[in-house]
Design a protein that fits this description.
- The protein is an alpha+beta fold and about 150 residues long.
- The chain has helices spanning about 5, 20-30, 50-55, 80-90, 95, 110-120, 140-145, and strands spanning about 35-40, 45-50, 65-70, 70-75, 125-130, 135-140.
- The chain has one domain (about 5-145): Roll (CBS-domain), CATH 3.10.580.10.
């Protein structure tokens, strides 16, 4: 059975939470990658930053729909969601734009499970973690390569 450790890339390009957004964009573009893991000083995975997180900052903030009754205003969308959108649009560091609830796999995770995650969750990149530390990264191409190998 082929596992994450068999196909993961161990030369990992990563950023830290305090990396500024222009630097993070440069890393993604210069390395032709869709996402980059975010690690702390102990090399522990704390988030992931994807191109879509950065593109989000370019969108216009919609005016939230409201409902008024007797001069009272009631928002029709969650203030938490609105706050999150404002935070991402105004992001100046990776910490402000990254996804914090990262789905990762362990080195012994079967490729079939990794493929399912990629398809079902629309992930392009999945971090590989062992004891909270980032040990590898798997992209769609890494999974596709298993179709051509003679293992």
């Amino acid at each position: 059975m082929i596992t994450a450790s068999d196909i993961m890339e161990t030369s990992i390009i990563s950023v830290t939470p305090d990396t500024d957004i222009p630097s993070a964009v440069g890393i993604l573009l210069n390395n032709h990658i869709n996402g980059v893991p975010v690690v702390n000083d102990q090399e522990e995975l704390v988030g992931i930053l994807c191109q879509s997180d950065l593109i989000f900052a370019q969108k216009e903030m919609p005016i939230p729909p409201i409902f008024t009754i007797l001069d009272s205003i009631f928002p029709l969308s969650s203030s938490k969601k609105i706050d999150e959108e404002f935070r991402k649009i105004a992001a100046t560091t990776v910490a402000q734009a990254m996804v914090k609830d990262v789905i990762s796999v362990e080195p012994d995770t079967p490729v079939s499970e990794i493929a399912s995650l990629m398809v079902e969750k629309h992930f392009h990149t999945i971090p590989v973690v062992k004891h909270k530390k980032l040990v590898g990264i798997i992209g769609k191409e890494d999974v596709l390569k298993t179709l051509t190998s003679n293992t």
